[in-house]
Amino acid sequence: MANKIVIDPVTRIEGHLRIEVEVENGVVKDAWSSGTMARGFEAMLIGRQPMDAIYVTERSCGVCTMVHGLCSSRALDMAYGCKVPEAGILLRNLMLAALYMGDHIQIFYNLNAPDYIDITAVAGYKGNDPKLLAIKDKIVALVKANDTSPFTPTYKNDQYTLTDPEIVTTLVHHYLQAIEARAIAQKCIAIFGGKSPHQAGVIQGGVTYHPNLEDLVKYKEYIAKVIDFVQNVYWKDILFLGSGPLLPVGQAGLGGGYNNYLSGPEFPLDNSGKDFLWKGGVVTDGNLGAVQPLDGQKIAESVAHSWYDYSNNQPLLQPFEGETKFNLKKEGAYSFLKAPRYDGKPYEVGPLAWAMTVQPKEFMDIVTKLNIKPGFLARHAARAYQAVDVSKNVMKWVDQLASLMGKGPLIVNDDKPTPDNARGFGFVEAPRGFLSHWAIIEGKKLKNYQQVVPTTWNASPRDANNVRGQYEQSLIGIPVPDPENPINVVRNIRSFDPCLACAVHIIHPESNRILKFVVE
């Protein structure tokens, strides 16, 4: 007899996500991922000025902040025929770098770490660190007052729950520090982008802001604090947990999925379009020795199980030809997400996909030595190392930007007229994974606009061949020994860092039901 478990909504993520799993003999046998909110960003852009897309799509999400504006700008760089100057590339890189570090810090500490700690363990802390003692006093008082949010409500402890008072109290301390580090990262973006979230500085051809030396000094001062947290707190915590108390999670490889990985090029080092800090690539069936270059023409989306229709019932559409036509009564549909496929197959995107395609030596050596397999712990490890990799390059980019000051116009926006007819696409390897925007201009207005975002790749429903999406496949085999405590299900889903506001393209009220069960 199977237990059918529905988690709706999945909390501590961005957006509205419903996960349904079928459990037999304590193991997930089947799964369904449903984006339960629809938004009309693509539809509302039709007929508008192309530049509107930069600022409209950025409102897709307040967590991903600038990535949609950057991706849209890159699509329009192509459509307008703009060549971004070196200073413009550096400024874009510096804003994106701040976003990366701040976002990854938040994802681990504030959204995922509570899945692994027993907050009541803080009461047993016996050390003499004044900061940790202050946290102990505060938490003990909150426990007595039955007010331990945001660490509760949570699922019951299991074999992977951390209960050591020293470890838990330290992680709670870092949880609080992470909030401050995230805020500082946002300030770094705002220096060049005017504000954050929803910066206003990135545009086709470069950026709109001319920074001065005071701006660069301020950025360096702020970002140094974020870098310090990434390298000396975040990464060290991950190394300690991943090689110690949580090593069994990593070695078990829970939540691996298809072992198909895709990432895009990111952090351009010049304006040739060929030289990047990360080259990206495609790995199929876990064959790490055969990384293939990314080919945007192989990207297409299915709506077979989505609340959309395609003209002529086509099974897949390449994004330039993509359509967003709602059909809320469609038989067999269960999600507002489309199902992106690369060469007809589902792929994982995000930090783990980045690590599997870029293969940074230090990271690969560590996971090989520890025998950590692809899964939800590996995603956290890859995310932390990705932040470290970014942190090693930021100060160099600031110095390069400073060297360009006083040598002619710092930023040239290539103020070209809107083309009568053009098309362009932009790629961003965003903190949550590979993002692409696709724009078609006719008569100086947008005729079509499509966003294929990271969570759409990962959280997609089944496609026209009834092949599961990556969330769904990654849940197969997840242990759920107690159907009333599906903690490993949410640990796995949250490890992807879901962002449903971006993924679904009208808003549905959130349900107050956290969990319900149907026993068949």
UniProtKB/TrEMBL annotation:
What the entry lists under PROSITE patterns is as follows: NI_HGENASE_L_1, NI_HGENASE_L_2
Molecular-function GO term, any one: nickel cation binding
Alphabetic keyword roster:
Iron, Magnesium, Metal-binding, Nickel, Oxidoreductase
Cellular localisation? Cell envelope
The protein's name in its UniProt record: Hydrogenase large subunit
Give the family per the record. Answer: Belongs to the [NiFe]/[NiFeSe] hydrogenase large subunit family.
| Primary location class | other
